[in-house]
Amino acid sequence: MSTTEKPGSQVISPRGSDTAAGGAPRATRLQAVRGMNDVLPDEAPLWQRVEDAARTVFAQYGYRNLRVPVVEATALFVRGIGDATDIVEKEMYTFADRLNGDSLTLRPEATAGIVRAAIEHSLTYERPQRVWTMGPMFRHERPQKGRYRQFHQLDAEALGFEGPDVDAEQIMMLARLWKALGLADVSLKINSIGDADDRLRHRALLIEHFERHRDVLDADAERRLHANPLRLLDSKHPPMQEAIRLAPRLIDRIGAPARAHFEGLTAALDAAGIAYEVDARLVRGLDYYNRPVFEWVTGALGAQGAIAGGGRYDGLAALLGGKPMPACGYACGIERLVLLLREQGATAHDAPLAYVAHAGDAAARMALAVAESLRDRGHAVVVHAGGGSLKSQMKRADASGAAVALIIGDDEVAAGTVTLKPLRVAAPQSAVAVADVAARAASYAA
Ligand code: HAM
Q1: How large is the angle between the packed helices 219-227 and 196-212, nearest 10 degrees?
Q2: What is the overall mean pLDDT for the chain?
Q3: What separation in Å is there between the alpha carbon of 15 and the centre of ligand 1?
Q4: Mutational test site, ligand 1, from 153, 189, 283, 291, max ligand atoms within 8 Å of CB
């Protein structure tokens, strides 16, 4: 912009202040970074419902909370997730620490950090551990509905377990979470990508196969053909689809131990009554997996239909410099669960039980005391602040979603009563003795 533009136009200086033409400097308005969203108070109750339900399910299965940093050494993700993956090749937020030049990365996922922490603190030295975490992850993807640059995951990891019982347990946990949230239209896909030597044998077959179909490969596939041919199966490039369909299936070639593991998992799912589809093309976007992998998908969110994904990663601990440790885990995208809940018409609110309106100094003091006595009984109460007429206070009371308004003026102070007005049902207001307010208000709770 330039100062010769229309009057009132602003110049953005490098320091971020505007100069209103002919006026004093004014700071430019800053905005959230693209793909990184605010969760506003009206939206947060559905998030909290998801998080609360997840905490309950984690506890029900004996998973304990482990919190790892949002920033880790870049090498952790390069080694853990794999350098020929989309995440490591193009999606990481990586920067140099200004003080010592160390390369650091905002975590794109939680598993690598959790395994690092397990190794660093010898967590599985005495016994295996079931752990969970939740929080923000960062991937520099093209934002669209259900896909963001800062997003949030619920994550569970079973460290030091051979399976397949814990593999099945984790899928059952998710089925329980969907049930607790009332989610419909979700289905389960599973696959086995075998053990390392199975993949090595299959790798040679895949390279041979795709070399015969070189004419349909896009640039990504060309580059990965020798580095990571399994990832070609994940390509959405339309001309490659037929070659992908005809590609040799890894699950048909896995060795006896991986097959027995997979059969153990499917038998447990059958016994639990959990329906699944075996999808030989399910390869996941991170390289640490072996044996069973799975995804829960929905048709209701368009292209971003994966609401949870996971699998076994028995080789990851050794890759990160620890002792070998069998393990499996999963993560769910909270944004996608919230979107799906909204699609299904779910609402949630965090309205208080009572909103206290008051007029006069003595009434203001009584309002605080009455509110405290209700809070002593565990109720949520908002006391009007900021002055204004009783009429305007009642508008605020209504907008707060409270079940009742408690009105206190000089008359109430003199009588030692509160005027209780139900806000959500047609019922007359009445004078209530202070000692009875909590019980009467609670009788109107939603
Ligand atoms: P993932 O499949 O990359 O796996 O991510 C898990 C879930 O996170 C996805 O199914 C999706 O719901 C959500 N998600 C991923 N990327 C985005 C995004 N850009 N925007 C919104 N939601 C997203 C992992 O991250 C593994 N660490 C899972 C795991 C845990 N495997 C073993 N343990």
Answers
A1: 140
A2: 93
A3: 37
A4: 153
